[in-house]
Specification:
The structure is a single chain. The protein is mostly helical. It is built from two helices and no strands. It is 63% helix and 0% strand.
């Protein structure tokens, strides 16, 4: 299955961006770029939201 990637800009507070950059630069978590880190963070957050919604039904 091929996934089409569309990139959009997002504004982040500088201290938060610095933390993301530090994690990416460290390389221990497998992120090769800010985009990978942000995409994974959003995926995890959405998954958590879905789990909470299911638990409330």
């Amino acid at each position: 299955m091929r996934v089409t990637m569309t990139y959009k800009g997002v504004n982040l507070p500088e201290p938060l961006l610095n933390e993301v950059d530090a994690v990416v630069k460290e390389g221990k978590r497998g992120f090769r770029s800010r985009a990978e880190f942000v995409a994974e963070a959003i995926r995890r957050y959405l998954d958590e939201m879905r789990k909470q919604e299911v638990g409330q039904e």
